[in-house]
Amino acid sequence: MRESEGGIRRLQDLRGYLALWIMFGHCCMFMSGAGPVLKCIQKLDLLCVGLFFFLSGYGLFASLENKKDYLRSFLLKHPVKLVALALISCMVNLFIQCALGHRGSAEELAVFYRSVWGSVNWYVWEQCYFYLVFFVLGLLVRNRTLRLVLLLIPCVLLIEFTRRSDLGQAYYVSTLAFPAGAFLYEYGDRAAGFYRKHRLAVLAVLILLAGVSYFSQRFPMRHALAAYGKNLLCVSVCFLAAALALDGLIPRGNSLLTKLSLGIYLYHLVAINAVSTWMAKHDMKRGYAFMVAVALLTMFFALCEYGIRSGIGRLFGTKMGKITGNRKK
Fold this sequence. Notes:
Elements: H1 5-12, H2 15-30, H3 36-66, H4 74-99, H5 106-120, H6 122-140, H7 144-164, H8 177-186, H9 188-197, H10 199-214, H11 224-246, H12 255-281, H13 288-316, H14 318-324
Helix pairs in contact: 1-11, 2-3, 2-12, 2-13, 3-6, 3-8, 3-11, 4-5, 4-6, 4-12, 6-7, 7-8, 8-11, 9-10, 10-11, 12-13, 13-14
């Protein structure tokens, strides 16, 4: 086992907490009069998404090396499955809005649906992009170093395209976390050995990089220094988290929350939309009760989503279980 894997496993166990942080960060955007603490939570939620990309990059490249015929049925088990689950969440969102009394015109509903798809699932599009890039490189490039170098090209292209488009900054501020995770897998043993010999220096450099790159926020949102500076901040935080996890300083996560992390991410904005619509109908202020209601509804959706996927895996056996992510025991 690679030396870096122990730390990565600790970080992977935190996926449930990361999903909850993202949920609360999005709640803060909709709350009335959010204070400085809530605004801080909101600003940091993109770093949590970056950690998801970081773990994804590490896990995919580890699986490519360690699992036989990993790319067989890869497209079905990963991007196709993710898009299908996202589409289901969007349909659930549309159904709930109609049930709560949204009776707008067809044009209004179309605009509403497009806004939901664009906001709830931007992560899905970027993750699927990474899946496709990984699949092509894994299929065509055998040299691991060359594969890492080539991986940077589509990531930079994505940053350049999105920062020049009308898409939000969420699409590009954490993009480089994915190749950073892949790099850690390929050179994890060397990196871990270097870190153990020069622990304080490495931590100081990572903290300094994070601090310096934080000031990139002073530039206009579409500026290249802002885009790459925020990516540097995200990558620095990811490596810092990996270093702390390697030292055992990251607390262990909750296994149930880890299993529910995908459902939490897919359905938390569905819950936000539902609670917001209900409160607006009753002229209620969106305060802390709003956040609690969103958290409870999100957990309900996530439990249902995980339960259905688990049931499909058990009902149809190992083959379908591999696709849904829940194999038959």
